[in-house]
Specification:
- The complex is a heterotrimer of chains A (283), B (567) and C (390).
- Chain A contains twelve helices and ten strands.
- Chain A has 283 residues and is α/β, with parallel strands linked by helices.
- Chain A has one domain (8-281): Rossmann fold.
- Chain A has a six-stranded mixed β-sheet, with helices on both faces. A four-stranded antiparallel β-sheet of chain A has the order 2-1-4-5.
- The two termini of chain A are 30 Å apart.
- In chain B, helix 11 (228-244) runs antiparallel to helix 12, helix 13 runs antiparallel to helix 14 (333-356) and helix 13 packs across helix 20 (492-507).
- The relative contact order of chain B is 0.09.
- Residues 1-43 and 560-567 of chain B have low confidence and may be disordered.
- Chain C has a single domain, classed as ABC transporter involved in vitamin B12 uptake, BtuC, CATH 1.10.3470.
- In chain C, strands 1-4 form a two-stranded antiparallel sheet. Chain C has a two-stranded antiparallel ribbon with strand order 2-3.
- Chain C is mainly α and 390 residues long.
- Chain C is globular, with a radius of gyration of 22 Å.
- In chain C, 52% of the residues are buried.
- Classes of the chains: A alpha/beta (283), B alpha+beta (567), C mainly alpha (390).
- At the A-C interface, helix 4, helix 5 and helix 6 of A face helix 1, helix 10, helix 11, helix 12 and helix 17 of C.
């Protein structure tokens, strides 16, 4: 995908509509383009719609994330950001549309645990850590490896695992909180711990929902730094409200509105789009 | 005009077999008038006094066979004075007086027997048992006596006795009764009973009819009725006719008639099941509707809900006790007064529970469950301490006693009908409160967004308490109605609590219409299963089905889907 | 905790047992009781001040069974947040399995003297033993069934419920419906479990008369042993990584899911283990009280179990044991002295514990620290750290 602002919904419409009729020229081209899109992507969301009791939360949503990309997704309340996350992580099933991971795995058929084990980590909007466990145990539980019941029953901590946990503790700046109960952490520290837990899962794609909500300015800065560092190793999708933070991330932005993609591109391009200005950035 | 009316009633499946109770007292009065009017022609005396005396003296024989002949002879003409004699004989109270060899009825009074004349029915002296010899009866004679009495009852001056006699004849289907029945039909003037007699005649004519035309006519009469009895008659006839061979057109007609009757009966069976289901559903609805507010709207697991129902029932009892000196028994007023009283008592207890216990536990549903269970134990024991552990008697007002009975076997009791009506009124009332009052608006606001509601000036604590009070008060009202059909004991609530939760969960939490539909569908399913599985198994099946249903739709029938925001 | 055991190169079992002061005390008491009580009951003369009468041995044995039942509920409620209001069902099923064995042991000594059929079947004019009674003349089979049947029911029920993510109060309500359905079913004579009256009039167990003091003492010791074993198993589960996952599920279920764990399998595992423990408790209970009837399925009893756990302190295991003893002793006391007061007391207990003692008696005793499945030492360490900072 280029950095040109693409009108993704209409684009996707064309593709979906002409999927069957492969004889005419543009359709073949579109099909070819579609295939090339798929082969390059780590996350491929195409024509996804979902309805809750008549309310269309997602309306033919399509977008693609390349491997190693850091992507920010913005949009006003009710634009469908969290629903989109729910669909990618298997919490909600779409009515129509495809969601592919690494161009081949169909995520719409799998549940949360399967998808997590495929290598998609998700951070919630509200920081969610295991409050009755120590920071160390939180990371231990997130540590990749056997997820089976009996594996867990007879599991013993290996040196390698311990080393990884220590490394992550350093990354998320919680070294000295190692034996602290997660419940006793500050709001920002919980956010970091949750990000650390995602890292322990060794995911290929990280979905991060509003990581800086409720953080202090300095914490926000630290978090942006943390995410940029992480984005060097993993593909990351960040959902965020905070425009300054998105600017700090310095990445491609997708604007959602009423369940579809309104605009896509660099933040300064997007900010100039009149429709975006109208629906989101204010008049 | 009246005849027309009756004949319409008779033909239609809605024909009223028996009519009792408040709505139909007019009908009862009419029946009384007719009774008076028609007693005399019925009371025709077939024997002269002397004949009767002579024939009765022939009972003084050792031979049972001879006795039976005499009994049949006595009964054959339908003399009303014969019945008491035969009855006395059946009970072993008929004696021959040794002094004059007269047959008398002896009634034991202390050590002596009073002699009663069989003809006049007057006392004619007394003696010790030594001077009387009993006319002995054995089992064979007892059977004959009963048959004879049944026959005699056909001519009784009492309409009810005659009606019963006709029913007995219908059941027995003994062709030898036919001449007697024909005689009774000649004398009978009561239209309704006459119709039954015609039916009985047709039943016998079907079995004993001499030519096809007679049988076809009988089949025609029978096919217009819709009762299990007629179905039995027809199916028996068809079975024996198939075995013995009979005119094909009669057989075909009988089969058609049987199909017709069976079809109509199964429709009525379904109607009956639906009615019983709705009746059970309305009870479930009453029990659950308060819970639909506390659990459904507020999300509070109130295990003491059943005890609120119990408190309502006890309030009814207390109100009746207090008013019993003022009001005549059967007056509807005590029940009418009990409704607001139960609402207030249960509602106030609800508010107290909310303020003292539940408000500290919002957001901790499992703890709420345990604490309210504790409340329920305390309330049960308190009731037991105050009122005792035994059932209390709540009397039903006149308008709730009685029933409409259909000849098809369907019985609609008035208390059930009133409860169905009452449950719908209660639900409609709640719906109105929720939708049209300021309190309902505040309540919905607090439910949807507590903080926002608080910041626009709604006193959320106040609304919580009143909402809980409303739910409890409605449970109390339910208790008034349920006191009419359940035992009013400290355990009353326990019998309803699991069912109530099932209804609310099945219907969908937070949805009043879901609760209504849930209650009625559970009630109907239960009653449709009962004929196949029996009451207990049906209940077990429903419970298992519900457990499985919750797997499929964890949030009930009418749950709102939504974006999963919870983490 | 895990690094603690590594530091001292201990096997994990010894490691977590040593850290568990409450558990150590519990196990020590159980060992002492299983040695002393039989001695005091069987060897000391009745005149001795230390003589323990047989009725008290049976009473204590009954409490031990309740304690095991409470332990099984704490394992799922305290550590995984599954509030089962139907655990009495598993207890009763285990009890019925043992009861069926004891029924078969009566043989032809019943009122009707039928060597194969229990009295109630003869009474119902049954001529043959129903197929599901086969095998219950063998002790080992009955014991296996006492664990297998509750386990199987829990597995099937749990599989359905957890797979479709029935949680919280909904789960509580359907577990209650489950035990209620079983209650109704076992009341039926056609079920072949003695209907209303249940199974009773037992004579002997493995050839030993149930009335004899020796058998009573033996059953008491067996109860101690099984409670101890189940405690160690439960403690082992909660201290493993699996146990940490369970606590994580209790606190943030969807986080666990998104971390890649199959929450339903974990719940299913612990629910089944817990049901098996409840079944064992039931099997030990029946020979000591001499009767099992459908009343044990009553939903009210299942809720009562939960309050034992709550009183003791959920999430500690030994707290559940303590709670079972406290509440049941109170029950014995009140129903003996002032029966009318018992339900007031029990009801008040439900309210008071949820409002004022959310961590139970154990939580109120500072030495035992947090009730989150944390060890005693880590609690102290935390407190010391906090003190140091201050």
């Amino acid at each position: 995908m280029s950095n040109v602002i693409a009108n993704a919904p209409s684009n996707a419409d064309t593709m979906t509509l002409e999927k069957e009729g492969a004889e005419n020229g543009p359709a073949v081209m579109a099909d070819a383009q579609r295939k090339s899109n798929r082969s390059e992507t780590i996350l491929y969301v195409d024509g996804v719609s979902v309805t809750f009791d008549g309310f269309r939360a997602l309306n033919n949503l399509s977008f693609y994330v390349e491997p190693g990309e850091l992507r920010a997704i913005i949009g006003p309340n009710g634009a469908g950001k969290t629903t989109m996350m729910d669909i990618i992580t298997g919490k909600t099933r779409p009515d129509t549309g495809d969601v592919l991971f690494k161009s081949e795995t169909d995520l719409t058929k799998m549940d949360e645990a399967d998808i997590a084990n495929l290598g998609i980590g998700r951070k919630f909007q509200k920081p969610t850590v295991f409050e009755s466990h120590t920071v160390f145990d939180n990371l231990l539980l997130a540590c990749s490896g056997g997820r089976g019941v009996f594996n867990a029953l007879f599991h013993r901590l290996s040196g390698a695992e311990k080393a990884r946990i220590d490394k992550t503790l350093t990354t998320i700046m919680l070294d000295d909180k190692r034996d602290e109960m997660a419940a006793n952490l500050s709001h920002g520290q919980k956010q970091w711990l949750e990000i650390g837990m995602l890292l322990m899962q060794e995911p290929e794609l990280l979905l991060v929902d509003e990581p800086v909500a409720g953080m202090t300015d300095s914490e926000t800065e630290e978090t942006a730094k943390l995410l940029r560092a992480i984005a060097k190793e993993y593909s990351v999708v960040v959902v965020e409200h905070d425009m300054e933070f998105v600017r700090d991330l310095d990445c491609k932005v997708t604007v959602l509105h009423e369940g579809s993609v309104l605009a896509e591109g660099r933040l300064d391009h997007v900010q100039k789009d009149p429709r975006v200005i109208e629906v989101y950035l204010g008049r | 005009m009246r005849n027309e009316l009756f004949s319409v009633l008779r033909r239609s499946p809605f024909s009223l077999k028996k009519v009792r109770g408040g709505f139909v007292r007019l009908g009862g009065a009419m029946a009384c008038l007719m009774l008076v009017a028609f007693v005399l022609p019925n009371a025709a005396q077939a024997f002269s006094d002397e004949e009767l005396r002579n024939i009765a003296e022939r009972l003084d024989t050792k031979s049972s066979t001879q006795k039976i002949t005499v009994i049949e002879e006595m009964a054959a003409d339908g003399d009303p004075r014969v019945a008491p004699i035969l009855k006395a004989m059946l009970e072993g109270d008929l004696f021959v007086r040794d002094s004059d060899e007269h047959v008398v009825i002896g009634r034991k009074k202390g050590k002596v027997y009073t002699h009663i004349d069989i003809v006049s029915g007057e006392e004619v002296g007394e003696s010790s048992s030594k001077e009387l010899s009993k006319i002995k009866v054995n089992n064979r004679l007892r059977g004959a006596l009963r048959d004879a009495l049944a026959t005699l009852n056909l001519f009784s001056p009492d309409l009810n006795i005659r009606t019963n006699a006709v029913e007995q004849i219908m059941d027995a289907r003994d062709p030898t009764m036919l001449p007697l029945l024909l005689r009774a039909i000649e004398r009978e003037d009561d239209e309704t009973l006459l119709a039954r007699m015609e039916l009985a005649r047709a039943t016998m004519a079907l079995a004993a009819g001499e030519n096809p035309a007679e049988r076809l006519a009988a089949i025609d009469v029978l096919s217009s009725e819709t009762t299990p009895q007629i179905r039995a008659v027809l199916s028996q006839f068809v079975a024996s006719a198939e075995a013995e061979g009979i005119e094909p057109e009669v057989l075909a007609a009988a089969k058609d008639a049987l199909n017709d009757v069976e079809g109509r009966l199964s429709t009525w069976q379904t109607v009956g099941d639906v009615y019983r289901g709705i009746s059970l559903g309305s009870v479930l609805l009453l029990a659950a509707v308060g819970l639909a507010i506390t659990f459904g709207v507020m999300g509070v697991i109130n295990m003491a809900h059943g005890e609120m129902i119990m408190i309502g029932a006890y309030t009814t009892f207390v109100v009746q006790q207090i008013l019993s000196s003022v009001l005549p028994s059967g007056s509807p007023w005590s029940l009418i007064i009990a409704v607001p009283a139960a609402f207030l008592v249960a509602g106030m207890i609800g508010v107290v529970i909310e303020r003292c216990v539940i408000r500290f536990l919002y957001g901790r549903p499992l703890e709420t469950l345990l604490a309210t269970w504790g409340v329920s134990l305390v309330l049960q024991q308190a009731t037991r301490t105050i009122f005792g552990a035994t059932n209390q008697q709540v009397t039903a007002p006149d308008f709730m006693s009685g029933a409409i009975e259909f000849s098809t076997g369907l019985v609609l009791t008035y208390n059930r009908l009133w409860i169905i009506l009452f449950s719908l009124i209660v639900v409609a009332g709640i719906a109105c409160v929720l939708r049209y009052t300021a309190f309902g608006l505040q309540m919905r606001a607090v439910t949807q967004n507590r903080r926002m509601a608080g910041s626009v000036g709604i006193r959320t604590g106040y609304v919580d308490a009143l909402t809980f009070g409303l739910g409890s008060g409605i449970a109390g009202i339910a208790g008034v109605a349920l006191s009419q059909i359940s035992n009013v004991s400290p355990n009353l609530g326990q019998t309803y609590i699991i069912d109530s939760f099932m209804v609310v969960v099945f219907g969908g939490v937070g949805n009043l219409w879901g609760t209504v539909l849930g209650a009625f569908s559970l009630g109907i399913v239960n009653k449709f299963l009962e004929p196949f599985a029996g009451a207990v198994l049906a209940k077990i099946f429903v419970l298992i089905a519900l457990i499985l249903f919750i797997q499929k739709r964890p949030k009930g029938l009418f749950a709102l889907k939504g974006r999963a925001v919870e983490a | 905790m895990t690094d603690y055991s590594q530091k001292y190169k201990m096997t994990p079992v010894v490691g977590w047992l040593l850290q568990d002061r409450g558990g150590m005390i519990l196990l020590a008491i159980l060992i002492a009781a299983s040695i002393l009580i039989p001695i005091c009951s069987l060897l000391l003369p009745q005149s001795s001040a230390f003589h323990v009468p047989t009725w008290m041995v049976s009473l204590l044995g009954k409490y031990l069974c309740y304690a095991l039942l409470a332990l099984s509920v704490d394992l799922i409620w305290g550590f995984c947040g599954i509030l089962s209001l139907g655990h009495g069902a598993f207890f009763a099923l285990g009890g019925y399995a043992m009861g069926m064995y004891l029924m078969r042991q009566i043989g032809d000594r019943g009122v009707y003297g039928n060597p194969d059929l229990p009295d109630f079947m003869v009474f119902l004019n049954w001529t043959e033993l129903p197929w599901y009674w086969y095998g219950f003349d063998m002790f080992w089979f009955a014991i296996v069934m006492a664990m297998f049947v509750p386990g199987l029911l829990a597995f099937v029920f749990g599989f359905l419920a957890f797979r479709s993510r029935v949680t919280g109060v909904y789960l509580s309500i359907i577990t209650q419906a489950m035990t209620y359905a079983l209650l109704l079913a076992f009341f039926r004579n056609d079920m072949g479990f003695g209907g209303n009256n249940g199974l009773t009039d037992f004579k002997d167990l493995l050839g030993y008369s149930l009335q004899s003091d020796g058998t009573r003492a033996g059953l008491f010791v067996a109860s101690c042993v099984f409670l101890g074993l189940c405690y160690i198993v439960a403690r082992g589960i909660t201290q493993s990584r699996l146990g940490k996952v369970l606590i994580a599920i209790r606190d943030a279920e969807s986080r666990v899911r998104f971390t890649g764990y199959r929450v339903e399998y974990y719940k299913l595992f612990v629910f089944t283990v817990s049901a098996v423990m409840a079944g064992i408790a039931g099997a030990l209970y029946v020979p000591q009280v001499g009767i099992i009837n459908p009343g044990e399925f009553a939903p009210a009893l299942s809720i009562e179990i939960v309050i034992w756990v709550a009183v003791g302190g959920r999430g500690t295991l030994y707290g559940a044991v303590l709670g079972a003893f406290i509440v049941n002793y109170a029950k014995t006391f009140f129903t003996g002295v002032m029966p009318d007061f018992w339900l007031f007391f029990l009801g008040g207990l439900f309210i008071a514990v949820t409002l004022f003692l959310p961590k139970g008696v154990i939580g109120a005793v500072p030495a035992f620290g947090s009730a989150n499945g944390q060890s005693f030492l880590s609690g102290v360490r935390k407190r010391l750290n906090a003190g140091g900072k201050a």
